[in-house]
Recover the amino acids of this structure.
């Protein structure tokens, strides 16, 4: 069956151009868009709070990222009562945005 590579709609045999998109149909759909580079550890912050601040900016810009807290093990320690914001954390982001995120982090931390 022919498919439209743009809207991924399936057409009956004989149709050659997608009436909606005006693109030539293909026999097989290409793979789903590949993820924008895999996420790698970009920078280690001495406080999770700083990592959260940078992540806020990245979230707003639509850059995928997450924070892996080194606090996971610490939280399991007996007698620990503080907040996790004072513990080191690592910010992860796309490999191709590494430089950008590092610069952003440096700029932001300069103002603290
Ligand atoms: Zn289409």
């Amino acid at each position: 069956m022919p498919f439209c590579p743009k809207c991924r709609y399936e057409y009956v045999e004989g149709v050659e151009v997608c009436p909606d998109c005006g693109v030539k149909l293909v026999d097989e759909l290409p793979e789903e868009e590949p993820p924008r580079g895999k996420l790698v550890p970009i920078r280690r912050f001495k406080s999770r709070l700083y990592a959260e601040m940078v992540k806020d900016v990245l979230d707003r810009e639509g850059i995928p990222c997450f924070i892996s807290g080194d606090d996971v093990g610490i939280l399991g320690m007996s007698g620990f009562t503080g907040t996790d914001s004072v513990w080191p954390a690592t910010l992860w982001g796309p490999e191709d945005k590494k430089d950008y995120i590092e610069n952003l982090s440096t700029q932001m931390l300069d103002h603290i």
